[in-house]
Amino acid sequence: MRLSSFFMPTLKETPTEAQIVSHRLMLRAGMIRQTSAGIYAWLPLGYRVLRKIEQIVREEQDAAGAQELLMPTIQSADLWRESGRYDDYGKEMLRITDRHDREMLFGPTNEEMITDIFRAFVKSYRQLPLNLYHIQWKFRDEIRPRFGVMRGREFLMKDAYSFDIDPASARRAYQRMFLAYLRTFARMGLKAIPMRADTGPIGGDLSHEFIILAETGESGVFCHKDWLSLDVLKDAPGFADDLQPFFDRTTAIYAATDEKHDAATCPVPESDLVSARGIEVGHIFNFGTKYSKPMNAVVAGPNGESIPVEMGSYGIGVSRLMGAIIEASHDDNGIIWPDAVAPFDVGLVNLKSGDAETDRVCADLYAKLQTAGREVAYDDREERPGAKFADMDLIGVPWQLVVGPRGLKTGVVELKRRATGEKEELSIDAALAKLAG
Ligand code: ATP
Ligand code: MG
Fold it and tell me: Which domain of life is it from (predicted)?
């Protein structure tokens, strides 16, 4: 992408309406635009990152055996009356009446709809286990939307739903998602701690929230200090293995949200206990037959008996993750994207647009890097070098390749790693080999 034509409305001034750094940086980098309270348009730079995050979530769901589908955002109120949640959900639900006076709603979650799809088609225990997910916009009329995409009203969620014949296999489904979540967040460069959590209006008994520690987080949390240095995925099993031992040893290391934490019964001595704040990026629930019973989602068992299916649901805040990643990875100059979710792999900085030789070398590098499959932000604008450096740092591209007439006299370019600030001079070919190899 040539920045001279890329729609990236960066801001010089720090926006005053933003209270936390991720929100400020997303606005300054021209990634999002608020269109109503808690509702955002994703501008090209922000949308590139959103798609990367979404794709990692998708790949890990697929690897865990979940199957992707896509359900609509608009749902019928009648479905929610079946589960009893239409009245329970309260003001967070956006209720809509269509032209025929039918009551509809903008889905805040999809347990009812997926249960309805399930009961229409799945009739036998032989069709189980089944795990279906989608990545779809949700609407919750949050009382206090804030912190940009962190607590929006319209937000992108991955929600998966598992269906099993008995509690033991439902537990296995839960453990698969538990492992998939740890892998998903690790791929984004995040350390997410699974914490025992309240189940809230979704219901059920077994539940974990996945929390990124951050001072700006909205959740109060407690965990054993070992979590700060631990790499739980180091000896993690694969999905074909028995996940119980891994699950037991990971959930033995204490971590709980403040709703679940009780100082009186906490097994961790005070000296080993960390009290912190965190951002909830995922939440998983096993809720048994809470929806299948009232909605009559039953299958025939081996002896023809009717068995209400055992269910779980598994959410990831896809759009919230973008804020969480920035909270975890930035400096005074801007965002530092982990490679896996960066909007571009390489920022190519032309120090003297209009200089024939510099333009030629840049155009050549731009073409070759793209041929090698790299996504390149080529800053070919007629701007001062200082402004170009500042924008590259702000938008956080992992590698910056700087090309100017002075270096080219001796055939060298400069390569900078955004995360460390380390710079090296090297020949054009060596730079290409390093970035494209
Ligand atoms: P919270 O306690 O933050 O309101 P929740 O318990 O209501 O979250 P879930 O219903 O479990 O959230 O939704 C799954 C995931 O969706 C959450 O873990 C979170 O990452 C994300 N999420 C929930 N509400 C919002 C929101 N208003 N804006 C952005 N992401 C959200
Ligand atoms: Mg909520």
Answer: Bacteria
Closest residue to atom 27 of ligand 1, CA basis:
151
Instruction: Determine whether the shortest distance from the Cβ of 157 to ligand 1 is under 6 A.
Output: yes
The DSSP call for residue 318 is H
For 29-97, where are the E strands, in sequence order?
32-36, 39-42, 67-68, 74-76, 94-97
In short, whether 278's Cβ falls inside 6 Å of ligand 1 is no
Q: What is the dihedral of CA 61, 66, 67, 73, to 10 degrees?
A: -70
The atom of ligand 1 lying closest to the CA of 316 is 15
Domain 344-436 in this protein, CATH class: alpha beta
The ligand 1 atom nearest the CA atom of 321: 20
DSSP state of 112: H
Taking CA atoms only, the protein residue closest to ligand 1 atom 28 is 151
Q: In the chain, which segments carry CATH 3.30.930.10?
A: 21-335
- Ligand 1 centre distance from Cα of residue 83 (Å): 21
Cβ 315 under 6 angstroms from ligand 1: yes
CATH of region 21-335: 3.30.930.10
Within 10 A of 212 (CB to CB), how many other CB atoms are there?
A: 24
Measured in residues, the chain has a length of: 437
Neighbours of 357 (CB within 10 A): 12
- Gap from CA of 279 to ligand 1 centroid (Å): 10
416 lines ligand 1 (CB under 6 A): no
Q: Find the 328 Cα to ligand 2 centroid distance in Å.
A: 22
Which ligand 1 atom is at minimum distance from the Cα of 285?
11
Q: Can you give the pLDDT of all 437 residues of the chain as single tens digits?
A: 999 999 999 998 888 889 999 999 999 999 999 999 999 999 999 999 999 999 999 999 999 999 999 999 999 999 999 999 999 999 999 999 999 999 999 999 999 999 999 999 999 999 999 999 999 999 999 999 999 999 999 999 999 999 999 999 999 999 999 999 999 999 999 999 999 987 776 666 799 999 999 999 999 999 999 999 999 999 999 999 999 999 999 999 999 999 999 999 999 999 999 999 999 999 999 999 999 999 999 999 999 999 999 999 999 999 999 999 999 999 999 999 999 999 999 999 999 999 999 999 999 999 999 999 999 999 999 999 999 999 999 999 999 999 999 999 999 999 999 999 999 999 999 999 999 97
Q: To test the ligand 1 pocket, which listed residue (157, 195, 199, 257) has its Cβ within 8 A of the most ligand atoms?
A: 157
Could you tell me where in the chain the CATH 3.40.50.800 domains are found? 344-436
Does ligand 1 come within 6 angstroms of the Cβ of 283?
yes
Which one, of 314, 294, 289, lies nearest residue 166 by Cα? 289
